[in-house]
Amino acid sequence: MHSNVYPDIMLQLRETIIDIMAKPQEVLVVIDDYGDAVQEQVDDVDTIHMYEIMRETLVYLTNIDANAMDKTI
Fold it and tell me: Are 10 and 26 in contact (CB under 8 A)?
């Protein structure tokens, strides 16, 4: 239903979110004193939260109209 009522708005929303998508959480791999590879996560709470919101929005938009999302990507 929504894809029939607001196709232009949803297309613009998809394109905008994809263009400004926040980066996912960064993970650094470092070598510790014992020579083992260890993961260190960089905590940037604002960016992580923004990424999660954008990802969820894209999932919802895909559920509404998967073909339009394929064309947009």
Answer: no
pTM reported for the whole predicted model: 0.66
Residue 4 C-beta-side C-alpha neighbours within 13 Å: 1
3-state SS, one letter per residue, for 25-58: CCEEEEECCCCCEEEEECCCHHHHHHHHHHHHHH
Whether the CB-CB separation of 47 and 22 falls below 8 Å is answered with: yes
d(C-alpha 25, C-alpha 34), whole Å = 26
Domain boundaries, the chain: 2-72
Dist. CA 30–CA 22, nearest whole Å: 24
Q: For 14-39, how does the pLDDT look when each residue is reduced to its tens digit (9 = 90+)?
A: 999 999 988 777 777 888 888 888 88
